Amino acid sequence: MPEGKIIKATAGFYYVLVDGKIYECRARGLFKLKDKTPLVGDNVIIKAIDERDGYILEILDRKNRIMRPPVANVDVVVLVASAKAPEPSFLYIDRILAMCEYGGIDCIICVNKIDIDYEGEYKEWSEIYLDIGYPVFYTSAKLNIGVYELSEYLTNKISVFAGNSGVGKSSLLNAMRPGLKLNVGDISSKSKKGTHTTRHIELIKIYENSYVADTPGFNELSIDFINRYDLSSCFREFNSYECRFSNCLHQNEPGCSVKEAVNEGKIHISRYLNYLKLLGEIVKSEGELY
Predict the structure, then answer these.
(1) What is the pLDDT of residues 244-275, one digit of tens each?
(2) Dihedral sign for Cα atoms in the order 165, 221, 129, 277
(3) Does residue 99 sit in the same domain as residue 177?
(4) Is 106 annotated for ligand binding?
(5) Is the Cβ–Cβ distance between 112 and 136 less than 8 Å?
(6) 104 is an annotated ligand-binding site residue
């Protein structure tokens, strides 16, 4: 039976790449019985009906998966933020980083539109993330700055592009692969936020064995699948500190080494405040379950 990779999912159909050929497939009913749904990025066994159509018979073992949006076997998440227009959301950045840390998925930050940040403010805030070990790429899709370096990093990887609307994800992909012609959302003059341009999950082949997923669903992302006591481990710089209590939430507990590090400037205040905001979301969500 042919083995392939799901490169697109929409309306109950799965498009499977097998030896350079794409089959439009349905999933067999047995997956519903097993409560397992095929995901973009899955390696699968299919049964071909003809030259174009087939059925998915088996989903091979996954090395990981992203919960929302659902993508499997991800090598790296590319978190795209804009230097300007729209202004970067640090809560969003820290939300995505926490999700990746929880899932054990590498994440890099791409600061796009550096050509319109004339004061270079992006250099200051991006240092926060460089200091805690996240790779940061600086790009301008418009002027083709940094695009080659980003492309090189993504070679032989399945990567997922994440970022608020309007930060230039589609523009970057178009710059990485000329001729792709993905739709590019304009910035709304009223909200200064971008318009959505991606409606389904799809792996886009950039180079041989190099795929990028441009996905909807990364905009209003809940992380309520993370337990309140696990969240602090998703802020990697917190892990260097040992508190008096093993279940310390780093709020008002005595002997909290994390709060002490914040007060001493060893942990950046914006990261700590965003941790508290995310913790509040999780606690509220957990309270609704009981």
Answers:
(1) 999 999 999 999 999 999 999 999 999 999 99
(2) positive
(3) yes
(4) no
(5) no
(6) no
